[in-house]
Amino acid sequence: MNVLSTIIYFAWFLSEILLHRILRGKDADDKKKQDQGSLAFIWIVIIVFINISVLVSAKTSYLILPGPDMNRIGLSVILLGMVLRFVAIAQLGRLFTVNVTIRKDHHIKKDGLYSILRHPSYAGSLLSFLGFGLSQNNWLGLAIVFIPVFVAFVYRMKIEEKVLSEKFGEEYTDYMKHTSRIIPWIY
Where do transmembrane segments lie in this chain (predicted)? Predict the structure, then answer.
């Protein structure tokens, strides 16, 4: 692993840890909903499958592209994902938490990135995991890290959408009809 990879991986992981620590919904006025263990599930999946992916990528040679270009592409995708995630968090503002939580005076965000995607923060995070897999330049390593993390995030999105549908009813179900989950106009 080169120095640039180390710096980007470290910045990415550190940003996620800080988000987890700082942006937990702790306000006394929040109406907290059970996330059915989805946050813990996501973290377990991430830790387990990143490590397996790194080991498999180091021990096998299923190159995506020969040479260092795929590492650079992957690192760029990680950074793009981080930017998307931070922009989504900034646009959601005080309504963003890492917990599935309905805040006091909560409303459905329908402008900015949220006019196209229901979960742009998750889209950014998943883009970073895709970049991580690509940066290893190993098809098997990419599949091992991305597929389980994607499945864990879909599980989380379903829980979150259920909570929001229960809270906002037809307003949220109508919003769902006019937006994609994480890939514009596709999914």
Answer: 6-23, 39-58, 73-92, 113-133, 139-157
